[in-house]
Amino acid sequence: KAKKDDHDDHGHDDHGHGHGEFDPHIWLDPMNAKTIVKKVTNQLSKLDKENSSIYKSNSKKALKEIDQLIKTTSKYDTPTMCNAMDVILGTRSATGFTKSSMVTAQNSTQPIVGFAKTAKIRASSPPLISQKEINNIRMEYYEYIVKNEENPVVVIEDTDFPNCIGAFWGELNVAVHKGLKIKGTVTNGLLRDLGMLDSGYQVIAGSIGPSHAFVHITELDTPVNILGLEIKPGDFIHADQHGAMTVPKKHLDALPHALDLVVKKEVPILEAARQKDFNIEKLKKAFQASWDIK
């Protein structure tokens, strides 16, 4: 496990209560869902060969639902996702999304969608551990982000924020993460090497800077804060040029319907407003038509 190299506390046990060696909540984490489903299915099929086809059928359905969730939400931008959360909650909210503007590595509207793999970095001062330990932690980080997940989104908090001075994200790390099939990156830290970054890998960052300074990883698999958005390992995250937002696990099943409803309720207003003979009376009718859509 990654060591702390200064006063930062390691995040593996930051749950508010202890579980000993094993975490009984692991099955609640979508990040582990595919791995758990596959392993349980294989084991049950070995123990109960008569019903093996049933287990495999149920497994296929569960895995398909996860893939469909990613596919469906990838069609929408982050503002629409935030609107969908308002529908699910039955009220507007001031939490669950980033609170400041961000910059992007790619000029693309395609969102980053997946489950969070988290870490913390700092760059304002040299690490207090050896270069060998730093290298080991970096390799541990790369192993962590590809473990047990087919839709990983790397989320890194720069603990120097708001005075970030060293970029972890540049030509090298973008190439490495793209090669490892990571879905994308969200960070409050710096981005550099503009114009030299591989296409097809999105980094949504807090700002831009020229140097990596003393940047190094300090924690893995820990809760992070990205511009006011609290993110835990395994959280469902959706991000684009507008910023990032998360959806609590208990609301994932309701997302597709909520997204569909958001889009349908906008149609009467948008269609009316774009007509040449649009006026206040037609606006009132359009809003009423929107409100009537349930």
What are the SSEs and their pairings?
Blueprint: H1 30-47, H2 52-73, H3 78-89, E1 103-104, E2 112-122, H4 131-146, E3 152-158, E4 167-169, H5 171-179, E5 184-187, E6 190-191, E7 203-205, E8 207-208, E9 216-220, E10 224-226, E11 229-231, E12 236-240, E13 243-247, H6 255-273, H7 280-292
Parallel strand pairs: 2-3, 3-5, 4-6, 5-7, 6-8
Antiparallel strand pairs: 1-7, 2-9, 2-12, 10-11, 12-13
Helix pairs in contact: 1-2, 3-6, 6-7
Question: What keyword list fits this structure?
Answer:
294 residues; 8-stranded mixed beta sheet; disordered N terminus
Query: Count of helices?
Result: 7
The shape, in one word, is globular
- What's the helical proportion of residues? 25-40%
Task: Detail the poorly predicted runs.
Answer: 3-28
* Rg, Cα atoms, Å: 22 Å
Task: Characterize the biggest β-sheet.
Answer: 8 strands, mixed
* Spatial gap, N to C terminus: 49 Å
* Topology, number of strands: 13
Give the overall average pLDDT.
86
Spell the H/E element sequence.
Answer: HHHEEHEEHEEEEEEEEEHH
Structural class: alpha/beta
Task: Name the beta content range.
Answer: 15-25%
